[in-house]
Automatic annotation (TrEMBL):
Belongs to the RibF family. Transmembrane segments: none annotated. GO terms for biological process: FAD biosynthetic process; FMN biosynthetic process; riboflavin biosynthetic process. Catalyzes the phosphorylation of riboflavin to FMN followed by the adenylation of FMN to FAD. CDD domains: FAD_synthetase_N. InterPro entries: FAD_synthase, Riboflavin_kinase, Riboflavin_kinase_bac, Riboflavin_kinase_bac/euk, Riboflavin_kinase_dom_sf, Rossmann-like_a/b/a_fold. One of its GO terms (molecular function) is FMN adenylyltransferase activity. Keywords: ATP-binding, FAD, Flavoprotein, FMN, Kinase, Multifunctional enzyme, Nucleotide-binding, Nucleotidyltransferase, Transferase. Its EC number is 2.7.1.26, 2.7.7.2. Pathway: Cofactor biosynthesis; FMN biosynthesis; FMN from riboflavin (ATP route): step 1/1; Cofactor biosynthesis; FAD biosynthesis; FAD from FMN: step 1/1. This is Bifunctional riboflavin kinase/FMN adenylyltransferase. SUPFAM superfamilies: Nucleotidylyl transferase, Riboflavin kinase-like. It catalyses: FMN + ATP + H(+) = FAD + diphosphate; riboflavin + ATP = FMN + ADP + H(+).
Length: 177
């Protein structure tokens, strides 16, 4: 694989018709030559595009397309929906099994009140925004990106219970290092 393209999924992108997705993104911008999609892949506004439409477009624009079969793990169909459900139910073992690796959260650190630093536990605040996360709670974690090796830490997912003004509104994860 030479490139990975991460497209911001915003309202404008979500409103693209299936045909526009094919002609503008796949053909004009990416020059796609081969496309592999899941057996239940849908795309375009209102999920109007499907494998059959991609096959027709492939014949018209000159690219090949193939469909993969469903993959299961422990009798559960591997899908983003199944992963989100496992996380919503706080079933981190199932989420890890479906993902093939432990669930991770990443993001850009935002400035906080530095309260943890005053008692010897500096924190890194990561806003969750639209990320799917496990059930609110406190977790033992490994923090990556601060050196050569992962550092042990504690993550609080959810609100900031020690700061009354933010107890119900602050949706942030912070690592205590």
């Amino acid at each position: 694989m030479d490139y990975v393209l991460c497209v911001r999924f915003d309202r404008r992108f979500a409103a693209l018709t299936a045909q526009t997705f094919i002609s503008d993104l796949l053909v004009k911008r990416l020059g796609v030559q081969f496309l592999a999609v899941g057996d239940d892949f849908r795309f375009g506004a209102s999920r109007a595009g499907d494998f059959l439409l991609l096959q027709e477009a492939g014949a018209e624009y000159g690219f090949d397309i193939t469909s993969t079969q469903t993959f299961c793990e422990g009798g559960v169909r591997i899908s983003s929906t199944a992963v989100r459900q496992a996380l919503a139910e706080d079933n981190l073992q199932l989420a890890e099994s479906l993902l093939g690796h432990p669930f991770t959260i990443s993001g850009r650190v935002v400035h906080g009140d530095e309260l943890g630093r005053t008692i010897g536990f500096p924190t890194a605040n990561l806003p969750l925004r639209r990320q799917v996360s496990p059930v609110k709670g406190v977790y033992a974690v490994e923090v990556m990106g601060l050196g050569d090796k992962p550092l042990p830490g504690v993550a609080n997912i959810g609100t900031r219970p020690t700061v009354a003004a933010y107890a119900s509104s602050w949706k942030c994860i912070y690592w205590t290092l």
